[in-house]
Amino acid sequence: MPVLTTNASGAAPPVVGVLGGGQLGRMMANAAHRLGLQVLVLDPLGADSPAGQTGLKAVAGSFTKEEDIAKLAEQCDVLTVEIEHVNAAFLQQLQDKKEANVQGVHPAPATIALIQDKYQQKQFFTQVQGVDVAPYEIVTSLQAARQVGERFGYPYMLKSRRFAYDGKGNAVVKSEKDLVDAFEKLGAKLLAKEGAGVDLKELAEEEAKLYAEKWVPFVKELAVMVVKGAEGDVRAYPVNAAGRGLKVIIAGAGGAAHLPGMIAALTPLPVVGVPVKTSTLNGEDSLLSIVQMPRGVPVATVAIGNSTNAGLLAVRILGAGDSSLIDAMATFLDTQKREVDDKIEKMAASGWKEYLQNMKKH
């Protein structure tokens, strides 16, 4: 990807520092490039991170260490995040320093800190009028978890306050017998494990790592993605995508982050999902998160990492109402056919072994 040195007005484009270089950072960088912005990514994998692999300038470092964030800030006009698990306290310090080079941190560090703690999120929404929240309690010990079971009944949810996402950090407690396994699954350290005598040291509320949530028989899950601009304008995406003239949406998904499915549930527009290759299951988890959407939420799915086919499929969908796109697609297919015929002739002339050897050289 080329790096812009000036924008349409001739001035140097703003530099956006992004803490985290995962799949969201990769998509963010592509969008920023179209807007004439420069992006600098901070990620432990540096240039090998998903965002860094696009050719963006990426710095190898931790988005939790103050010194690494400070070095990033020195080179940027504004800071943002693509992952919530960052050093929100230090970002707040940068926001408060008038002499700092950074003009702003978005979202606000206080918002990031709130997002990091799911229990504090519950407390926040409890105070918001019109938002219903399932009953919840802090869990300061194994005995406290037993008492929650007596009050809430079984099953109930035991959840980690921090570092929980995409279904991780949650455990279903079906009965009191499940408590020890649930604690261990969520990383809460038991002081001893001797038969029924297992228990946790009683913790202060601010030290407790878990909280309980009463079981709710959900009928459906609804989600709306809302973005707010620096000037205060608010957009709901992709709820109003059709109203803004969009005809088809291409969305990528890494791991179990079923972004294409979420979008398809919110918009009447056709959605094409691109599974992103991951380091753990080579993208098979990404593929399943898209293709296994429930009935009523269709997502057209292409091969892992094959964004080219996603683009071509989008052209075919748009071509249903635009004959010029149908003609362009026919030309593309004809070109492909000629390329294949040419390869067949070359292989027939040289033999398949020599042809394959030449392919390996290139």
Automatic annotation (TrEMBL):
It comes from Phytophthora nicotianae. Keywords: ATP-binding, Nucleotide-binding, Purine biosynthesis. The keyword Transmembrane does not apply. GO terms for molecular function: ATP binding; metal ion binding; phosphoribosylaminoimidazole carboxylase activity. The keyword ATP-binding applies. Residues 123-334 form the ATP-grasp domain. SMART domains: AIRC. PROSITE patterns: ATP_GRASP. This is phosphoribosylaminoimidazole carboxylase.
